[in-house]
Amino acid sequence: MSDDRRLDVLRAIVEDYVQTQEPVGSRVLVERHALGVSPATIRNDMAALEEAGFIAQPHTSAGRVPTDKGYRMFVDRLSTIKPLSSPERRAIQQFLADAVDLDDVVDRSVRLLSQLTQQVAVVQYPSLRRSALRHLELVPVGDTRLLVVIITDTGRVEQRTLELDAPIAEHVVPELRARLNAAVAGRRLVDLPEPLEQMALAFVAEDRPLVHRVVRVVEDTLAEATEERVVMAGASHLARSGTDFSQTIRPVLEALEEQVVLLRLLTEMAEDTAGVTVRIGHENQHAGLAETSFVATGYGGDGEALARIGSLGPTRMDYAGTIASVRAVARYLSRILAG
Amino acid sequence: MSDDRRLDVLRAIVEDYVQTQEPVGSRVLVERHALGVSPATIRNDMAALEEAGFIAQPHTSAGRVPTDKGYRMFVDRLSTIKPLSSPERRAIQQFLADAVDLDDVVDRSVRLLSQLTQQVAVVQYPSLRRSALRHLELVPVGDTRLLVVIITDTGRVEQRTLELDAPIAEHVVPELRARLNAAVAGRRLVDLPEPLEQMALAFVAEDRPLVHRVVRVVEDTLAEATEERVVMAGASHLARSGTDFSQTIRPVLEALEEQVVLLRLLTEMAEDTAGVTVRIGHENQHAGLAETSFVATGYGGDGEALARIGSLGPTRMDYAGTIASVRAVARYLSRILAG
DNA sequence: GCATGGCACTCGCCGACCCGGAGTGCTAAT
DNA sequence: ATTAGCACTCCGGGTCGGCGAGTGCCATGC
User: Fold this and answer.
1) Among A20, A122, B267, B317, which is 20 to 30 Å from B41 by CA?
2) Chain A 81-140, CB below 8 Å of chain B: which residues?
3) Residues A113 and A98 in one domain
């Protein structure tokens, strides 16, 4: 018995099942793939694969269906990554390049990926904590309110309103603005605390409280992991016809509406920016996602990813194609943000 | 024959059908409602109602189901608005009051409404064109780029990057910022063009090109109807079990993913801010929404609404409850924005 | 003239039944 | 180790009948 052939059989089963959505039997397997052996032989291999937990049969005498473990093996052994066609690449590049600002870039990316994979796409905004700051702006609003606008080098803009106890002294704002910007410009969040503390010392004692409050807001805003934003598109693909998946659609939609769940999905994956991570079925923590797989990778930043992007679909999805699409969009997205 | 009773019958049919989701027959009708007549009498009325197009029977001998026209009549005659319970009101108020910024307010509103109605909720961001400007900020980025940040009195923030041909003269930015703000502060978009033109004249000729470009960006940004933003929540409610609606779910999800469709949905409704508008089934232009109804109203602004908020569900929805919820959320939302 | 009771009729739904086909596992032979 | 043959299982689809809900109509009563 050849282990090699068994893996071939597994691969063939996955491929056929993904395509037809129906349990695949030994006969059609030899017909559609050049396996060079008879159905009976395949049956023996299938029995072994089932014993090992890679495939299962829904009913006593139906064909076989891959299990999560089977998909896992399939994905791990997946060597052939189909590259996208070059018109496809150009289309992606062009579409992303037309974006006018960060919101637009992210929006286009998520729609694009959803379109390419015909699945749900998820994109995380470039992380604030890992971005560098480009500019801080202070805008007095009325007497006792101060609007703090934070602009990062990825083009992300965050705003916070600050309620003050006492009216703002006129002279403080311009000075604070100048010093703040001098202190933070070009720095990443991680490197911020000390320069900011230093800067605060430069003010006269009576202005300190205000300065400290502003500093705190800036730090809080940048630190809030909660503020990580995630956008999603293509939910309608979940309702693709001809699949019992439509029974499962409710919990999936519910999961996808929870920012928290989306975020965990994206961040619980391996930290290396190079590779593409695949989570299959029950490997996802969330119960509602037990029948879905998620393919994700990082984008932006060198070495350490700025944020992540991924595609979610039924476990019976086209893994090779999805991986290729996710990787491609991530690459062009990184390029846009860097340029 | 009493027309009054016929309307009662129609009302009873709608109420029962909304509750049970099943065609309602003459017998159960007299059992569950105190109509004071026999099933046979009801049958006559039903025949008349069917003749008039208010109800229909799915199969020759099944109960009756309201048509779009029937729902329309029902809604138009709907006098009893059930007010929300006072704990409910308090909960709404509290939940919205906890919001930290505009994004948060809108986000909370849409989730809240979705929760209350157990349907899809849609909220439009306060319109830029109708908002007043609070502040304009100019941030030079590098030598040839200028970031324009626009802040409205509703707390909305828009940003645009401007690519310039020539490096920016240092002295221009502060002056421009000051004059711009003097020109626009507190004004609504509609009233902007002249003051801006006037202001541009105050600059020496060589700075005019830059000034004009900035002015143009501001006007364009505020004018772009495209930039109207709409957020949606509660898509999972579409997949509520026990309804053939799950067959129709795909086109609905597709429609809801199109910002354009959402916007049309919200803006094609009557312009009066006071009332709640209801669109039933085919009254919605979009084909995918033929089996849904949409309940919406305006919020913010006095007299003329700043933006709109609404709830979308199957035509067989609880109109009275939905109308009450939409109205309640809109009211509190307006209050928050005004305060 | 409207309401009502009675009655025949129409269908849709459900369970029973049956059959064909696909697929398997096993065994014996190569 | 592979393969052909074969008996067995079981799902899916199709047919059939009976049941029940509901209707429309007619004759009757107030």
Assistant:
1) B317
2) 100-101, 134-135, 137, 139
3) yes
Q: Using a CB-CB distance cutoff of 8 angstroms, which residues of chain A are in contact with residue B157?
A: 149, 157, 159
Mutate to test the interface with A, among B102, B156, B250, B262 (most CBs of A within 10 A): B250
User: Do B279 and B331 have their domain in common?
Assistant: yes
- Is B232 an interface residue toward A (CB < 8 Å)? no
Q: Is residue B79 part of a domain?
A: no
A241 in contact with chain B, both atoms CB, cutoff 8 A: yes
Residue B76 lies in a domain: no
Closest CB to A239: pick one of B147, B159, B249.
Answer: B249
B157 min Cα distance to partner chain A (Å): 8
pTM value surpassing 0.85: yes
Of A137, A241, A249, Cβ closest to residue B139? A137
Strand partners, B64: B24
Kindly identify which residue of chain B lies nearest to residue A135, measuring between CA atoms.
B139
Q: Is B21 (CB) below 7 Å from strand C?
A: no
Q: Return d(Cα A304, Cα A26) in angstroms, integer.
A: 46
List chain A residues with CB under 8 Å of B241: 250
A250 to chain B nearest CA, in Å? 5
Closest CA to B305 of B154, B169, B139: B154
Expressed as residue numbers, the domain containing B280 is 86-127+228-338
β-sheet bridge partners, residue B278: B295
Q: What is the DSSP annotation of A221-261?
A: HHH-GGG--EEEE-GGGGG-SS-THHHHHHHHHHHHH-HHH
DSSP one-letter code for B54: S
- The Cα B145–Cα A28 span in angstroms is 62
- Same domain membership, residue A264 and residue A205: no
Structural domain tally of chain A?
3
Q: Report B:141-200 residues touching A (Cβ under 8 A).
A: 141, 147, 149, 151, 155, 157, 159-161
Give the type of residue at A136: L
Answer yes or no: is A274 CB < 7 A from strand D. no
B134: which chain A residues are within 8 Å (Cβ-Cβ)?
139, 141
Q: Which residues of B touch A155 (CB under 8 A)?
A: 161
Name which of A145, A191, A197, A195 is nearest A166 in CA terms. A145
Do B236 and B328 fall into the same domain? yes
Do residues B310 and B165 share a domain?
no
Burial of A50 (0-12, 13-18, 19+ CB in 10 A): middle
Beta strands in chain B (DSSP E): 55-56, 65-66, 120-124, 133-141, 145-152, 157-163, 230-233, 277-280, 292-299, 307-314
**Ordered strands of the B157-163 beta sheet:** B133-141, B145-152, B157-163
Instruction: Using CB atoms, pick whichever of B101, B139, B250 lies closest to residue A151.
Output: B139
Kindly give the confidence (pLDDT) of every residue in chain B, 339 residues in length, as a single tens digit, with 9 standing for 90 and above. Answer: 567 899 999 999 999 999 999 999 999 999 999 888 999 999 999 999 999 999 999 988 889 999 999 999 999 988 777 788 889 899 999 999 988 778 889 999 999 999 999 999 999 998 777 778 878 888 777 778 788 888 877 777 777 777 788 787 778 888 888 888 888 877 877 777 788 888 888 888 888 888 888 888 887 777 664 457 899 999 999 987 656 666 678 899 999 999 889 988 888 876 655 689 999 999 998 999 999 999 999 998 776 788 899 999 999 999 999 999 999 999 999 999 876
